[in-house]
Amino acid sequence: MRLDGRTAFVTGADSGIGRAIALTFAREGADVAIHYHVDQRGAGQTADAIRHHGRRAEVVQTDFDDLAAVEALFADVLARMGTIDILVNNAGKGDNAETSLEIDTATFINVLNVDLIAPFILAREAAKHMVARRHGSIINITSVHETIPSPGGAGYAAAKGGLRMVTRTLAKELAPKGVRVNNIAPGMIATPMTTATLLDKEQSDRALKNIPLGRPGEPQEMANVALFLASDEASYVTGSTFFADGGLLQNIGGA
Predict the structure, then answer these.
(1) N or C: which end of the chain has fewer CB within 10 A?
(2) What would the pLDDT profile of 132-182 be if each residue is shown by its tens digit?
């Protein structure tokens, strides 16, 4: 097992990509702390599945728009788990606007808090712990929109693009101290966040025509990338974004 004896903290692990990552880590031998915002039942199901694999699970709830609570979150998880070898910043939200001109200031700030500032706080606190042990892996889940703009997505793109630069900066600073930091940038993935688009044939067809593989990705496919980055197999990988998008960037383009 590639993560035997390690401890992970996965945010937004009540469903979708976060749940798939948490369960994959557990199958590979890790104990996992699960964060959720509102879906307590989903978080409980994830925890039950982790325990079914014979691993320890702890569940924590935090609203990432409450930055004071985020400041305290890592310390709480660390106290419960004893150590954290892997942090996955997966929790996030979108703008949900037709155009960016419709995004009010409060919503823009909320998206930045949830998608950028909260992940930075957790990465910072995790890195302090990991540096002291000279070992650790931080994985940020961004999006293809860290590089591709989208109408109505100014806040989301700003947050994901900002998290890309946080990742690259921390990777450079922490590499000499034994801590690796990387991104996974998913394209269209079949999760609760994309259900409405995938069920709408017109929207779905429009989105899928730009994807060379011709289908949405599955959460497990993102978890497979996360497992690689969390494991010793990626011991020489830091500061990178792994685009898992079915080839979307080959058609849309991006830096």
Answers:
(1) C
(2) 999 999 999 999 999 999 899 999 999 999 999 999 999 999 999 999 999
For residue 90, being part of any structural domain is answered with yes
Angstrom CA distances, 1 to 43, 166, 213, 231, stand at: 24, 30, 30, 10
- Scanning the chain, the segments in alpha helix (DSSP H) are 16-27, 40-52, 67-81, 105-112, 118-133, 154-174, 195-199, 201-208, 219-230, 248-252
Query: How many other C-beta atoms are found inside a 10 Å radius of the C-beta of residue 215?
Result: 10
CB 116 within 8 A of CB 142: no
- H or E, element range at 8: strand 7-10
**Domain residue limits at 125:** 7-245
CA distances (Å), origin 13, targets 71, 186, 211: 19, 16, 26
Domain holding 62: CATH number? 3.40.50.720
Domains contained in the chain, number: 1
Marked catalytic residue, from 36, 108, 120, 156: 156
The reply to whether 73 falls in a domain is yes
Cβ of 153: how many Cβ atoms within 10 Å? 22
pLDDT tens for 23-73 read 999 999 999 999 999 999 999 999 999 999 999 999 999 999 999 999 999
Give 199's contacts (C-beta < 8 A, 6+ positions apart): none
Q: Classify residue 149: in a domain, yes or no.
A: yes
Residue 156 annotated in active site: yes
